[in-house]
Design brief:
alpha/beta, four-stranded parallel beta sheet, globular, Rossmann fold, two-stranded parallel sheet
């Protein structure tokens, strides 16, 4: 679980462990990642932590090697690491653009590239990539780099699904609507967040656990004929658009 120190990936880590998975929490924030591990272990689950920078190939490859060393196989990859900042093209300098792409899009690519060989050797595997309704379906103002990166994740995932379907690998995408995560709370003040949530059909933000439930389905054998799907978990946002 990349990004497992917080937000959607943390909720997914806890949920998957509760359902019997041995979870490796992978994140660049060791203290918060270890808190996720402790939460899982306190509930009787199996979890460990691996520090990773998803924008760096060597770090990602080390993450996969650590998983294989501990567990002997890799069944599921959830790419939940991501960053968010706002800005138009004119307000987004090259360094900011490159950083957004490096984490959100290139990070997803590097993790998939590293995870695929052991999955292909076993003839099965499930990859769940976290995109966003913003980028996966539509755009929004003042977030050009984020929209571009998340749109890239959605189409990258669908292309992968086609390429590796006959090798037993399923690749699916979740596009969450506005979700109550530390990342979103860091981007808006409480008044802005309340107005934002109220603007959508259900009048509230998603909880990370609600997105994690969709990830659990996509990763499971219950979704054995699902690949290349883009799941909008958004409280009616895209239906309204």
């Amino acid at each position: 679980m990349t990004g497992g120190a917080s937000g959607i990936a943390r909720a997914a880590s806890v949920l998957f462990a509760r359902e019997g998975a041995s979870v490796v929490v992978a994140d660049g924030r060791a203290e918060a990642g270890l808190e996720t591990v402790q939460e899982i272990r306190s509930a009787g689950g199996v979890a460990s932590f691996t520090e990773v920078d998803v924008s760096q190939a060597a770090s990602v490859e080390g993450m996969v090697e650590a998983v294989l060393a501990r567990h002997g196989r890799l069944d599921i990859l959830l790419n939940g690491a991501g960053i968010l900042f706002y800005g138009t093209v004119l307000e987004t300098d090259e360094a900011a653009w490159r950083r957004m792409m490096a984490v959100n899009l290139t990070g997803t690519y590097l993790c998939c590239r590293a995870a695929l060989p052991p999955m292909i050797r076993r003839g099965r595997g499930s990859i769940v990539n976290i995109s966003s309704t913003v980028g996966g379906h539509d755009a929004c103002a003042h977030a050009v780099a984020y929209v571009a990166s998340k749109g890239g994740v959605a189409m990258f995932s669908r292309a992968m699904a086609i390429d590796h379907a006959r090798q037993g690998i399923r690749v699916n995408v979740i596009c969450p609507g506005p979700t109550d995560t530390p990342m979103l709370r860091g981007a808006m003040n409480p008044t802005e967040l309340e107005a934002f949530a109220d603007s959508f059909p259900m009048g509230r933000l998603a909880q990370p656990e609600e997105i994690a439930n969709a990830a659990l389905f996509l990763a499971s054998d219950e979704a054995s004929f699902v690949t290349g799907a883009v799941f909008y978990i958004d409280g009616g946002q895209t239906a309204e658009i």
